Amino acid sequence: MEIPEDKYSVLLNSIAVTLQDARANAVKAINSELVKANWEIGRNIVEFEQFGKEKAEYGSALLTNLAKDLKSKHGKGFSKSNIYLCRQFYLSYPIFQTVSGKLSWSHYAELLTISDEISRAFYEKQAVTENWSFREMKRQIESSLFQRLVVSKNKEEVLQLSHKGQVISDPEHIIKDPYVFEFLKLSDESIVKERI
Predict the structure, then answer these.
(1) What total of structural domains would you count in the chain?
(2) What is the C-alpha to C-alpha distance for residues 177 and 170, in angstroms, rounded to an integer?
(3) Rounded distance, CA 167 to CA 165, Å?
(4) How many CB atoms lie within 10 A of CB 23?
């Protein structure tokens, strides 16, 4: 008995949509856990540093020691700068409920490089509202969208211009984020071997 081509195509498309949705949900779950874990790491560091006091007693020696020990015990992803980012993440977002589940750790790591709180809040809100990928948000930051809006007389036109750019919607591209690789203890080589 021959399989009807049109019904078979519908089946193939249905399975493809199911897989695409499952992969997108898996990436969201990984990013959500990574954001939560890094916030918790930051909270633990700050609480250890302050030990109930207003100011910390320990300096960068703590971060250096943590980076060395965590890297030897848990692998990549625990450089001193990453440990520092976790600490800064907690200090910038001391209430976890204020952290958006729509943004990845890469988003937050980039946002933490913005010292001006108003500017950082603008990019964070726009990234959530406009569903910006990390790369798109970084492009908007590098193009100084916020500063252009502040000085522009025609803010609507600047916002319209900001909508042009690359939006990554394929979960396969999103999971290539080096933070995700480190969190899952994956290397680029293991991903390449898996595809072969």
Answers:
(1) 1
(2) 12
(3) 6
(4) 15
Selection from 146, 175, 142 nearest residue 159 by Cα: 146
Task: Among 19-28, 55-64, 86-95, 134-143, name the one with the lowest average pLDDT.
Answer: 55-64
The one-letter code for the residue type at 76 is K
Measured between alpha carbons, how far is 75 from 186 in angstroms, rounded to an integer? 10
Full residue range of the structural domain in which residue 31 is found: 5-195
Write the pLDDT tens digit of every residue in 24-65.
899 889 999 999 999 999 999 999 987 756 566 666 688 999
CB atoms within 10 A of CB 66: 20
User: Can you give the pLDDT at residue 145?
Assistant: 86
- Encode pLDDT of 178-193 as tens digits: 565 566 666 555 444 4
Cα–Cα distance measured from residue 189 to residue 161, given in angstroms and rounded to the nearest whole number: 38
d(CA 192, CA 186): 11
* Cα–Cα distances in angstroms (integers) from residue 33 to residues 2, 16, 36, 101, in the given order: 47, 26, 5, 10
State the average pLDDT for the chain. 82
Which of 113, 125, 115 shows the shortest CA–CA distance to 149? Answer: 125
